[in-house]
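== Sequence entry ==
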Amino acid sequence: MTSPQSILPADGKLAVFLPGLGAVSTTFIAGCLLARQGLAEPVGSLTQLGTLRLGKRTEDRTPKIKDFVPLASLDQLEFASWDLFSDNAYESARTAQVLESRHLDPIREELSSIAPMQAVFYPEYVKRLAGTHVKQAPTKADMVEALRDDIRKTLRDRNCARGVAVWCGSTETYVEPSAVHQTIQSFEKGLLANDPAITSSMLYGWACMKEGIPYANGAPNLSVDFPAAMALARETNTPVAGKDFKTGQTLMKTILAPGLKARMLGLAGWFSTNILGNRDGEVLDDPENFKTKEVSKLGVLEHILQPEVYPSLYGDVYHKVRINYYPPRGDAKEGWDNLDIFGWLGYPMQIKVDFLCRDSILAAPIVLDLALFMDLAKRSGMRGVQEWLSFYFKSPMVAEGLYPEHDLFIQSMKLKNTLRWLRGEQLITHLGREYYD
């Protein structure tokens, strides 16, 4: 596959559509507003602070990523959202209690001007929430058309050249692909029939793809990772990516597990528990919604450790994940892990990890990077699953027939090599002529 001959410039304003104007979205928006005024630094964002090496180490070429590929700037971003509550971004940020007054007060006016559009919300998929700011329509097909109208109106009224969407809403109940998800025709028939296997997040994904808006899924929902959606993404030349932002505990797993495997240290068990008190924690307190998250979290170790290849080291791992709703903690999530490992001659050892993290603080830079990289993908003529963005997800989407790569360091190399490829630069393989000269 040859790299694109040209990448369309990032001219004009970019609308960032955010289904869900809660803790993650408001933290992301506030951070962008502060950063573009020079009031804060976008820590955690690869697109803003990251660099990549070009050519040989002796060439000393290490540009910032944002200077190497044509990304939209923070000044070009226009924020639009949908939410099942009518609170504007400032009110929602206050409710979320992630950011302090010293960060919210300087941008209060801008945040207050960002009011959500009415959400498409079917409560059977998120039973712990009761929406009061929601659309009404006879069929799910009509809901898709209402969302498409929102997208077109936003682009027109705000004079935006293009758009990108990042799902920041809640985790839905667990759904597996069924007959309605197999083809574009079967899915659109299901929309007209209000098929219960079609969830709210699927409607957002479908509407975005119909409009050619790149769509990244930040939750573990079955949103666009089914055959009909993949076919529509190809037909409309739309990039899609997902799923489930890799923030706290799973981020640690994708750092630690590759290290154990690299050193051929065995693993007997990995117990993980979380306490979380924000809206996400409340939603995940429902067993049906937790199952969706659990499936996303449990797949990480199996793919990294390859138990079928290393049965004596990883063939009998006991892996348990729990999430507990604990309101006093709010957005300050605690992820506690116990690893029972073994080494030379089978002698047992333990690793304990207590990650006192902030869920939305870790997610916000991911939203920014995905918005900018997905827009870059669209302008580069890429479509379908953007596997090079697996770096950001717990349960990465892949093309049919492939297994997902979960190793954070391999994911990082894949992402940076894709950027090199886009600009016609040599890929970094750490095997070159210097070994043979």
Observations:
- The longest strand covers residues 266-276.
- DSSP finds 16 helices and eleven strands in the chain.
- The chain has two domains: 13-245+360-422, 249-356.
- The domain at 249-356 is CATH 3.30.360.10 (Dihydrodipicolinate Reductase; domain 2).
